[in-house]
Amino acid sequence: MDERAALMDEIATEMRLTAGQTGRAELSPRVAAALGKVRREAFLDASARRLAYENRPLPIGRGQTISQPYIVALMTELLDLRPEDKVLEIGTGSGYQAAVLAELVAAVFSIEVIPELAERAAKALLAEGYTNVKLRIGNGALGWPEEAPFDAIIVTAAAPRIPPSLTVQLRPGGRMMIPVGPQHDVQNLVLLTKSETGAVAEHEILQVAFVPLTGG
To answer: Is 110 a catalytic residue?
Structure first.
C-alpha cells in the first residue's frame, strides 16, 4: 500500500472512531476522492515533503501549520458542499485546504494575513492547476464582504469567538466550520448553521488544537 492510500485508511479509521461525536462514520465519495487526489506534498517545503502523508499537522513557517489531514477531511465533510457552491476560507496557510475545496466547488475565496504564506500558496495552487481559487491578503475576521454571501465558510485558525462579520456573510441555508477557543487551551470545533429564515445555531463537534486566528 502506498503512503497516500495508507493515509486515507487512517482517515477512514478516525472517522469511524469519532462518529459518535461528529455524526459522520465515513467520508462521502466526493470528499474522499478530493482528499485522495490533492498532492499534500505540493504544499510543503522540500524539507518536509517526506512527511506529507503522515496524519498530523506540519509546520509551514511563520508559526503556522498545515492541518492534520483527518481534520481537513472532517471539516470539509461537515460543510456538505455542492459542486455549484461558493466557499470562503479564512487562513489560506499552505493552500492545501483550498485545493481540497477547489476539487469540490465552483469557487473558493481564501484570505491569508501573512503575505509570505499567501504568495507561496498562490504559487503552489497555480502549479497544481487550481484556477478556481481567488486569494486575498488581509484580516480574515472581516471576511470578504464584496463577494458575500457564501454557501459555506471554513476557518482554519482558532478564534476566541465566532466573528460576527463571518456569520453575516453566510447565506441562509449555509454552514460554517470554525475552531473556537483560546490559544493553548481547550478549543472546540464548531459547526454553525444558518436556516433559510436566518436563524443561527451552533453545534460543538469535538475538541481540537489550532493556531490562533490572527487579526481579530
So the answer is: no
